[in-house]
Fold this sequence. Notes:
Layout: H1 5-8, E1 16-23, H2 26-35, E2 42-49, E3 68-74, H3 85-97, E4 106-108, E5 112-115, E6 118-127, E7 132-138, H4 154-158, H5 164-178, H6 186-195, E8 203-208, E9 211-220, E10 226-230, E11 233-237, E12 241-245, H7 251-254
Parallel strand pairs: 1-2
Antiparallel strand pairs: 2-3, 3-7, 4-5, 5-6, 6-7, 8-9, 8-12, 9-10, 10-11
Helix pairs in contact: 3-5
Amino acid sequence: MNEYAEIAESLPDPFRILWRARVGSTNDELGILARQGCGEGLTLIAEEQSAGRGRRGAPWLCEPGNGLAFSILLRPKVEKELWYRHSLIAGLAVAEAFDGLGLDGKVKWPNDVLIGGEKVCGILVETGDDHLIIGIGINVNGHSFPAELGATSLELALGERVERAGVLAGVVGRLAVHRGFVRDNFGGIIRRIRMRCALTGREVRMKSGGGEIRGIVRGIGGDGELLLESSGELKRISHADGIRIIKKPSVEEGF
Ligand code: BTN
């Protein structure tokens, strides 16, 4: 019996756990099961991923015993044009799950989750014809991350080890609630995301529409788009990659 068995019974319907010691990528593995007709709610957790993937094809490394890597299968009933909203609710669900640990998770649009300005969770949402897979990687425990990643863990933030099963149960619990608001009352989701937005008021640069764009984030629009003031215009950004917060130079650097 692994550590997740004890929370299996407590997950809301239709969520259920499938645990694997090692897979390539939980998103890929769950994609196979989805195409075989598996019902929604299946949550595949792997202790180890040999080919974990991040956004933009980057590898995602998850330390066995410390990280939490899982993918959730959904078969949304809403129009396909609204499916992108699951990407936003997933980030919100993770950030809110951290409340239970007394940590203030912020959402770095569209769905990275930060603690103290450092990344603690990445999310990769992929869609098939009739299903959607939400892949979530959380640095639960662990002390050392390459400096260039700007990453942290829940353990580092709290100063003590954290039980991965409890984090998983928290995320699934919030996601189970929020997925009911992907079409109706999505405004309530947006209000929650705005309260946790790590980017509002910050100067950023990002890749969008084939080029680099720079500006000040003014907030999140009603459809979940990023509102960016750039070159004197308020732009509505629906897709962007590689968002970087431009740090103001310190006094020393300025001299
Ligand atoms: C990112 O920030 O670039 C997204 C990272 C997503 C990683 C998770 S770990 C579980 C699932 N399986 C994968 O191969 N990727 C996602």
